[in-house]
Amino acid sequence: MDIVQFLARGRRVLLALALLLPVFSAVAQVADTARHMAGIKEVELTDVEVAPQAVDTKGWLLLDQDVQQELNGAVHNLYNFKFDRADRQFRSLRRRYPEHPMAYFLMGLSTWWKILPTNMGTTQYDRTFFAYMDTATTKAKKLYDADKHNYEACFFLSAAYAFDARLHAERHDWRKATVSSKRSLEYLDKSKEANDLSPEFLFGQGLFNYYAVWIADEYPWLRPVLFFFPKGNRDAGISQLRTVGKTGFYTAIEARFFLMRILGSEREHEETAALNVARQLVAEFPDNSYFERNYAMLCFREGDWANCEQASKSILAKLNAGLPGYEGYSGRYATYFLGFLMQYRYHKLDAARDYYQRCIVFSETLANTSGGYYQGAAFNLGKLAEADTDLRSTKRYFQMVVAGGDRTAPSYKEASVWLKGHK
């Protein structure tokens, strides 16, 4: 790897680190010193705790219990993908507090969750999303300029810039992503004096503690650069995310969402714990396609066939009904799981073929045919065709497996061997 490649890869991973810190939690962070590349100034994330009474929080909607009670239904609607209802409630908040950033940020967050279920593939909401986050930063900056100790303003500045950076990074606009990340970290640093005001602020600290260790382990070539960042703590990070998931308000669902992903990752191998989190999320937000498809996947991994089947059929029913967030990605998961169950659990081979073929259609429609469920569906169709001595179909499906498949997968190797013997 030459130095240009090193810096290019390092910039992206360091950007990921910067983005992990401030999403929702721009106030409480870890000790030590952090530096960012490309001229970003040194950011000292000192672990300073200030008693709540030492900070004037008058007018802070973030800590206002009445506002939390009012928005409880709106936040639930957001994560249950009832976007129209949630947005109406957020607009009502905007009418009453037109100069406050909260409503604009929440409407931007609502837009973010319209993008997420597409694996960030859709761009139709980008302009709206960036507009909401830009307005949130403008309103928050005005509050901050009026009072340099308005840490709530710093919270929204850091969070809004972080989300802005995240989407620019997804769109590979590294210049804009880096600029927004720099600004997010700067306001994160400014807000360090308000660390102990709310459990909400543990969210970013928990993410940093976990992912700082993860990045150092997964990218050992970056360790010399990561020397300039605070050290993470895996166990503390997971514990903090659990705490926020139980006691937070605005950040609770995001914390549980990350817990589900972290615990179910190859690194942690705690699928049972991840499944428990996913089950809770689906029970509370049954129409969130992202939660439901991850629940189905974790059930599949854990061999919970009955719940996997139920969730997969639910996904397809909601997709057919046109519910928000239920689209090709969710359909791809569900049809593969159902095809597998029809083939191996119920031995209903015609039904299995139908589901696998639908999985392939979903994958091709999404232009997502490199490995994964597409490769698995094509391989299983090939095996079914081979059992029927339909060599023409077997060859066709196995060619699909090797065309863009994962070369390390057993299905790729078996399909390759078969094709070599049937030229």
Blueprint (SSEs and pairs):
Layout: H1 3-20, E1 33-34, E2 43-44, H2 65-79, H3 83-96, H4 102-115, H5 126-146, H6 151-170, H7 174-190, H8 202-218, H9 223-226, H10 234-247, H11 252-263, H12 271-284, H13 289-302, H14 305-321, H15 328-344, H16 349-365, H17 372-387, H18 391-404, H19 410-420
Antiparallel strand pairs: 1-2
Task: Name a few traits of the molecule.
423 residues, mainly alpha, two-stranded antiparallel ribbon, disordered N terminus
Order of helices and strands: HEEHHHHHHHHHHHHHHHHHH
Number of helices: 19
Large-scale geometry: elongated
Class by alpha and beta content? mainly alpha
C-alpha end-to-end distance: 39 Å
Task: Give the helix level as a range of percent.
Answer: 55-70%
Count the beta strands.
Answer: 2
Question: Widest sheet: strand order?
Answer: 1-2
Whole-number average pLDDT? 84
Low-confidence stretches: 1-10, 18-52
Work out the strand percent: under 5%
Report the sheet with the most strands, covering strand number, pairing sense and barrel closure: 2 strands, antiparallel
Backbone CA Rg:
23 Å
Description:
Residues 1-10 and 18-52 have low confidence and may be disordered. β1 (33-34) and β2 form a beta hairpin. It is elongated, with a radius of gyration of 23 Å. Strands 1-2 form a two-stranded antiparallel ribbon. With 423 residues, the chain is mainly alpha-helical. α3 (83-96) runs antiparallel to α4. It has helices at residues 3-20, 65-79, 83-96, 102-115, 126-146, 151-170, 174-190, 202-218, 223-226, 234-247, 252-263, 271-284, 289-302, 305-321, 328-344, 349-365, 372-387, 391-404, 410-420, and strands spanning 33-34, 43-44. 48% of the residues are buried. The longest helix has 21 residues, at 126-146. It has a domain at 3-255. The two termini are 39 Å apart. The chain contains 19 helices and two strands.
